[in-house]
Amino acid sequence: MLHKKVMPTPLKKAYQDALADQGKLALTMIVSRNPKAPIQDLARLVQDNPELSGVTLGDLFEAGGGRKRGKGKTSGGGSKGGGKRNVRTEAGREAFDAEVLEALKALGGDTIAATDLRASLGADSTQLRTSLNRLIEKGLVTFTGKARGTRYSLAS
Questions:
Q1: Interacting residues of 46 by C-beta distance below 8 A, sequence separation 6+
Q2: What residues form DSSP beta bridges with 152?
Q3: How far is residue 76's CA from residue 65's CA, in Å, rounded to a whole number?
Q4: How far is it, in rounded angstroms, from Cα 49 to Cα 89?
Q5: In this structure, how many other beta carbons lie within 10 angstroms of the beta carbon of residue 100?
Q6: CA torsion, points 24, 28, 34, 38, in degrees to nearest 10?
Q7: What is the DSSP letter of 27?
Q8: Element (DSSP H or E) covering residue 130
């Protein structure tokens, strides 16, 4: 009996890619939330989950919030994962809003908690909340719930 090789449909491929992206995001979030975890544990986690093998150290450092040595505070500047951004200018606000939209998209675009967005961006909570409010006013983002139960989604 001959076995026919089945090619994945575009939808199945998109689904598999989305799962891989979520796995990578989960790994970066775990590492950023557990900075004292031994490398040995990280290696074991990647070994047990081969779909994570494409994650780079750069991915992990970006998700970790660009920590400085010694003080435990995030570094300044406008780069991804850089803590407080310079949002005093219109251009700075637009750049940060674009980062927030990209992070929402990377997290699946639907019912995302602010804490997950903050972890993904390494963002300051006040600046993130202000950005989300701007995006809601522009009709680019919607929300449900209130307080800690608030979830954000990309507008359709």
A1: 27, 52, 53, 55
A2: 112, 143
A3: 10
A4: 43
A5: 23
A6: 70
A7: H
A8: helix 125-137
The CATH T-level fold of domain 87-156 is Arc Repressor Mutant, subunit A (1.10.10)
* Tens-place pLDDT, residues 71-114: 333 334 444 445 567 888 888 899 999 999 999 999 999 999 99
Question: Coil, helix or strand for 4?
Answer: coil
Who's near 114: CB < 8 A, 6+ residues apart? 125, 128, 129, 132, 150, 152
* Cβ atoms 55, 28 nearer than 8 A: yes
List 141's β-bridge partners, or say none: 154
Please report, for the chain, the start and end positions of each structural domain, with discontinuous segments joined by +: 11-64, 87-156
Residue 98 neighbours by CB under 8 Å, 6+ apart: none
Q: What is the pTM of this model?
A: 0.49
Q: How far is CA 121 from CA 66, 78, 92, 100, 103, in A?
A: 10, 11, 15, 8, 7
Categorise residue 80: left if φ over 0, alpha if ψ from -120 to 50, beta otherwise.
Answer: beta
Count of C-beta atoms within a 10 Å radius of residue 74 = 18
